[in-house]
Amino acid sequence: MKPIKSLLILLFISSFTTLFAQDRAFSDLLQNIDAREKVSLNGLWDIIVDPLENGYYNHRLQPMDNGYFKNAKMQSPSDLIEYNFDTSDQIIVPGDWNTQMEKLYYYEGTVWYKKDFNYSAKTNELVYLYFEAVNYEAIVYLNGERIGTHTGGYTPFQFEVTDKLKEGDNFVVVKVDNKRKRENVPTVNQDWWNYGGITRSVHLISTPKTHIADYSIQLAKGSTTDIQGWVTVENGSDGDNVEISIPELRKNVKSIVKNGKANFSIKAKPTLWEPKNPKLYEVTIKTASDEITDTIGFRTVSTQGSKILLNGKEIFLKGISIHEEAPFKTGRVTSKEECRILLQWAKELGCNYIRLAHYPHSETMVREAEKMGFMIWSEIPVYWTILFDNKDTYANAKNQLTEMISRDKNRAAILMWSVANETPEGEARLDFLTNLTNEARKLDNTRLITAALDTQSEGEGGKMIEDPLGKAVDVIGINHYCGWYVDEPQKCSSVKWASAYDKPMIMSEVGGGALYGLHGSKNERWTEEYQAEVYRTNIEMMRNIEFLSGLSPWILMDFRSSRRPLKRIQEDFNRKGLISEQGMKKQAFYILRDYYLKENN
Ligand code: GCU
């Protein structure tokens, strides 16, 4: 064959593959794993605590070939192997190590996890090893072979491992490291405990070789009758059929795969998802070799001046902020029951909206909240002063954003993606965050983009919102602690606000601390009376903010933070919860509840 011809063919193929790649803006995370056939790898895992990363580096700090990931066993009595998972400690997955072992309470560093499991292959099957979350850095090995890494503690990742599995006994080893580093996201200081470990579930997911990998199904921007979407088919070929059906709406459409993707649109009149009626529809996607069903709600969200419109109607977001701290047992939330306890408390508070702070919470939390009718603010941990001029830090933040949106893009309850919390003004920061907001819009142009700011200045008319980041976002979140970090509580009622932007403002954080059961006058810090006064006067302040379209006071429940060492009061807990970590409601809980139930219903 003439060299020029082969070159042309080569060029064509490469453009095809890059096109293919370009076509997949999202990471290839399997969508809706709940609906997939899977084997859980949850339960007891063997662990080795390795502060010096002795199982990874040799004494010359060079990565070793025969590290702990080999799970080596003595073959003869003279063998020298200075670790043994089978005789080591065990820990429960999912979960953090800090609250499971007293000796690991403050531990930050490497812990090696090992799990044995049995596997028998099926024909025409692909197998994915799927982690819902590992904090912070994970290096994953299967049967002693490195299969991949992941950075970021709050989003899922997967590896296709079909060819690496053995018939019968297999073992997976994960090197988990939650060491804080300046270039990380979040960086070295955060006001929540740096819980380390395999904090969410681990699955072996089985799919047909050719399977539905990812899909997006929702109303087109600004339309309540045009459902649009796409489906990507792994190992699919052009011309393959894809069928999308919504039985309850008597809708069934067919589409054709082109470049690995099938686009479609459906004219329909769905009952729109809203807090009072969180309507979800069963949607089934079928191909010749695969089928998957999801429950999806349809709604539109937009802004009009300083108003937030849900399904074209103005809505006020009566919210509360929530950390992924487990009620009663504390540590990372690990079960649906714990999610429901937190959400039930938010329901009792009269909320129709929750801010999941400061990182993506579990898919279970998002789906349970959606079923209960909560509108959601979902966030990536671009928190305080990260390295805005560091390109790896940006790539990391962008990756966490992409994984967050990829996992939850079909959740109607999520109205806003937040790209940052309390970041200091500056050029590098503005570029960094403006780029992130643009990235978010590219990935999903149907939701609102926001950020929580604390850059309000003292102006003539009171507090002035003029942070240049206000230009890039659709909704401006403001964190302001009147009566706690600034001013006495009594001063707050008369505080006025002004904004340089004709955009909705959400008071994304407001509040103060109290130790449950500590009583005294309303001027005595840490008493329930003081916290209640802070809420009373801040609610008065917020009543006077015309462009306020919602709030998410800080915070539903006390949560652990290594910034809170005050003995007999904080005991390593941030005490700004309206409920203690042991479920005891403080006076301020009822102040906010009355405001939500009596005023804004
Ligand atoms: C900040 C921050 C929170 C923190 C809170 C507090 O605004 O966003 O993460 O916990 O203030 O100081 O309690």
TrEMBL record:
It is an enzyme of class 3 (hydrolase). Its EC number is 3.2.1.31. Residues 73-208 form the Glycosyl hydrolases family 2 sugar binding domain. PROSITE patterns: GLYCOSYL_HYDROL_F2_2. Pfam families: Glyco_hydro_2, Glyco_hydro_2_C, Glyco_hydro_2_N. Residues 304-596 form the Glycoside hydrolase family 2 catalytic domain. The keyword Signal applies. Residues 210-299 form the Glycoside hydrolase family 2 immunoglobulin-like beta-sandwich domain. Keywords: Glycosidase, Hydrolase, Signal. Gene3D superfamilies: Galactose-binding domain-like (2.60.120.260), Glycosidases (3.20.20.80), Immunoglobulins (2.60.40.10). Residues 1-21 form the signal peptide. Belongs to the glycosyl hydrolase 2 family. This is Beta-glucuronidase. It comes from Maribacter aquimaris.
